[in-house]
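Intended use. Records like the one below are meant for learning the mapping from a protein sequence to its folded structure. Do not use them to infer anything beyond what is encoded.
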Amino acid sequence: MITTERTFSVPTRADVSANNQAIFDKLQKGIGFVPNLYAYFAKNETALGDYLALQNRKSTLKAKEREVINLVVSQINNCHYCQSAHTAIGKLNGFSDDQILEIRSGSASFDSKLNALAEFTKSVTINHGAGDQEIIDAFFEAGYNEANLIDVIMVIGDKIISNYIHNITGFEIDFPLAEKI
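Structure written out for the chain above:
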């Protein structure tokens, strides 16, 4: 049997519904462009709005903590799009290039609380929702609570969604490319 590789395209504003065009306009106004990942979600009538609601929900976690999760999960799932996007966002949140690379590997020796978070995130992601008990205990000993645990799992889920979308479609990365490790 002969197979061909499917090519996935990112829709333009003109290609999407009026509802998604309004979201494109808000993104354009808010961040200056519509990232290809978000544009791809707009191929579905409700997915873009749903995804943005998940991504922008209130959280017990600080922006830096969410970026730790995003970087760890994107590395484990080998999503170069999300590694690149969250490297840029991580820098905006004050992480250095070296810190970002360390976080992507699943640790943050420069901050004990973020290290516990990175190790917890790595363990949960690699173990598909289960975690190593010592790492779970260290997460709580670092000062996190059960509300934080729920938010970490929510961010892991968010990132798995976007990682899987890009890993299947492979559309163009529209952020500065992250270093591969």
